[in-house]
Amino acid sequence: MNHTTVEVEQGGHRLLLDLSPAGERLVLNRFWLRDHCPSLPTKASGLRTFSVASLPENLHIKAAALDEANAHIVIVDWSDGHASRYELKSLAAVAQEATGQRTPLRSVRHLAGTEQPAIFDAAGLDYGTIAHHDLLDAIVRDGFVLVDGMEHEDASTERLAALLGRVRETDFGRFFDIVTEPEAWTLSQSTKGQDPHSDDPFRYTPSGISILHCREPASGGGGTSIIVDGFKVAEDLRREEPEHFELLCSVTIPYLRHRSTQVEQGEDVHMVAYAPVITRSGQDVVGLRFHERSTGVFDLDPAIVDAYYLAFRSFAVRVRSADYHYTRRLKAGEAVVFDNQRMLHGRTGYESDAAGRRHMRLCTVDRDQTHSRLRRLKEVHGLDGITQQRLHPGSAAY
Ligand SMILES: [Fe+2]
């Protein structure tokens, strides 16, 4: 027997449903309810032409009751003359997504500096397989993975990238060959070490999931890769120096890349993006831009300039601390795949060697591509950890 009760509250601004037999209570706002009227195509369809602009500000529920012919349906009569018929079960399912509790695609794990990331054999990574899923899942979970067994050919970088999504073409093309150059136009082409940084913060959307494929290590030694979980650094900063954390979240600084002439692997560019070091969504840390070589003049309010530099310095000191460093001297055929908006990467310096140049091949795929592919693989293989809600990688809270 159905004991579901229907009540209109707050002058028609709220609908209260006590569902039988589960005893579940749904409290639904007028606009939310109308936005989910079954007369409209579902939100996932992308076919809607409905706009909330078409609803009056004073929209309210005039009456609501279970359908006399079918007690699994509630009929809502609206002040603007519209009538909605909601199937209770479907309404309850949609309402579950309206809790404000966003289900992550994957739980995040912060590896300590000495912990090993997941290692995948390139030969076992076929498109659409569980191994493909596990690769992407580990990238979201740990922020980076290693892939070994890569062939010594350009196509092998391309094959790995295709598992992540479509390679993003930029002013340096689809791939960037980091090779020691006598006339370096970027520090990566020199033999100098690089502090951990994120790539291309001067883009409105920085590089996403990036591949560094080692084709040839430095023959004279050195050139060890350093990986830092920037979200871990941010979370530690939040806990230990909350005022510094707030400044890095709230103050935007300019990131800059300027080349007035074309270079062998890059166009002339003048890119400027203002952004904070730490990007938050609600309380979750969801992105990082940290690259001292790519910042412009800090044009800060004089009232905060000193405090800001202290906060920025604190982040830089932590990033340089070996406590956060995962290090590995990549061999030929190994690649590190990392989320450039979470993980920072750097390297130690190395000896120049005319007999064999260090060669790393770099490319990037937008994060949404990789996360979309992971959601689809979870759907196809019937795996947990997916909803239609957005992805929040990196929050220690979940
Ligand atoms: Fe870099």
Ordered list of secondary-structure elements with their pairings:
Blueprint: E1 5-9, E2 14-18, E3 25-29, H1 30-35, E4 61-66, E5 73-78, E6 83-87, H2 88-95, E7 119-121, H3 130-142, E8 144-148, H4 154-164, E9 176-179, E10 194-197, E11 209-216, E12 225-229, H5 230-240, H6 242-250, E13 253-259, E14 269-275, E15 278-281, E16 284-288, H7 305-320, E17 325-328, E18 335-339, E19 343-347, E20 359-365, H8 367-380
Parallel strand pairs: 7-8
Antiparallel strand pairs: 1-2, 2-3, 4-5, 5-6, 8-18, 9-20, 10-19, 11-18, 11-20, 12-17, 12-19, 13-14, 15-16
Q: Domains counted in the coordinates: how many?
A: 2
Order of helices and strands: EEEHEEEHEHEHEEEEHHEEEEHEEEEH
Which radius of gyration do the C-alpha atoms yield?
Answer: 26 Å
* CATH T-level fold name of the largest domain: Double-stranded beta-helix
Strand order across the largest sheet: 7-8-18-11-20-9
The total strand number stands at: 20
Question: Strand-residue fraction?
Answer: 25-35%
TL;DR of this structure?
By secondary structure, the chain is an alpha+beta fold.
Report on the architecture of this protein.
With 398 residues, this protein is α+β, with helices and mostly antiparallel strands. It folds into 2 domains: 5-98, NE0471 N-terminal domain-like (2-Layer Sandwich); 119-380, Clavaminate synthase-like (Double-stranded beta-helix, 4-Layer Sandwich). The chain is built from 8 helices and 20 strands. It has helices at 30-35, 88-95, 130-142, 154-164, 230-240, 242-250, 305-320, 367-380, and strands at 5-9, 14-18, 25-29, 61-66, 73-78, 83-87, 119-121, 144-148, 176-179, 194-197, 209-216, 225-229, 253-259, 269-275, 278-281, 284-288, 325-328, 335-339, 343-347, 359-365. The strands form 6 sheets. A 6-stranded mixed sheet has the order 7-8-18-11-20-9. Strand 7 (119-121), helix 3 and strand 8 (144-148) form a beta-alpha-beta unit. Helix 3 packs across helix 8, helix 5 (230-240) packs across helix 6 (242-250) and helix 5 (230-240) crosses helix 7 (305-320). Bound molecules: fe (ii) ion. Residues 188, 197, 199, 345 line the site of fe (ii) ion.
